[in-house]
Specification:
- The structure is a single chain.
- It contains ten helices and eight strands.
- By secondary structure, it is an alpha/beta fold.
- It has an eight-stranded mixed sheet, with helices on both faces.
- Strand 2, helix 2 and strand 3 form a beta-alpha-beta unit.
- The longest helix has 17 residues.
């Protein structure tokens, strides 16, 4: 198999967490499955350009906003498969094998990771269980779980919309249950927002934001509310 996967990471600045993300993605380069690594920059610093050059990534410029950045990265990608990964998400070792298996066994479906948090708090385990149950029962994985999708399927459903929040929900909503499945890999993401705000408070805030979006609230207003401290 040739290297068919373009990995796309939306970024704003170089950070320690981004470094961990990129280090985990290096497994794909060693494995030979990685066609390219694209950093979709929403207005980062010169350090980000230096980092991209240092790790052999392409830097794609886009207006700030995760949906806009992901869309720009996908448009620039050359791989047959697109793997979208948030900058604070780290894939567990062995992920390239899981991706290869998905490409062979489920070419018409998009795949997502099993969510974990980089926290020892017992409420982190509860939140993980709920997130993974939500993904399974309601076909509603979030972007921090990663998303692997063939470019033809991505194009067929219209790709990521250029919105600042809920772009992940919008895309998987168009895919539907029959075109989604688990990749059987762990995607560990940052618990910083939960630890700053409180696990229960942040969980309630996330649920409220999702409900408002599904009821028709504008993503721009939701983004302002979501990021308010």
């Amino acid at each position: 198999m040739t290297a068919p996967v373009s990995v796309i990471v939306p970024v704003l600045a170089a950070s320690e967490r981004l470094g961990a993300c990129l280090a985990s993605l290096a497994d794909g380069a060693f494995d030979g499955i990685l066609a390219e690594l694209i950093l979709a920059d929403g207005g980062g610093t010169e350090a980000l350009a230096e980092l991209a050059d240092g790790v052999g990534a392409r830097l794609v410029r886009a207006p700030k906003g995760r949906g806009t950045q992901l869309s720009a990265g996908a448009e620039a990608a050359c791989g047959d498969w697109l793997l979208f990964v948030h900058a604070d998400t780290v894939f567990a070792p062995g992920w390239p094998e899981a991706v290869r298996r998905h490409i062979v066994t489920a070419p018409g479906r998009a795949g997502y990771g099993h969510l974990a948090f980089d926290s020892t708090d017992k409420l982190a385990r509860m939140t993980e269980r709920w997130a993974n149950l939500r993904s399974c029962l309601f076909a509603l994985p979030y972007g921090d779980q990663g998303l692997l999708i063939h470019r033809d399927l991505y194009s067929a459903v219209g790709g990521y919309p250029p919105i600042p929040l809920m772009e992940d929900v919008a895309l998987v909503g168009k895919l539907g249950r029959r075109r989604l499945c688990s990749l059987q890999i762990t995607a560990t993401t940052s618990a910083q927002r939960y630890e700053q705000r409180g696990w229960l408070a942040q969980g309630a805030h996330n649920l409220s934001t999702l409900t408002r979006y599904l009821l028709g609230a504008e993503p721009e207003r939701l983004a302002e509310r979501y990021n308010r401290r």
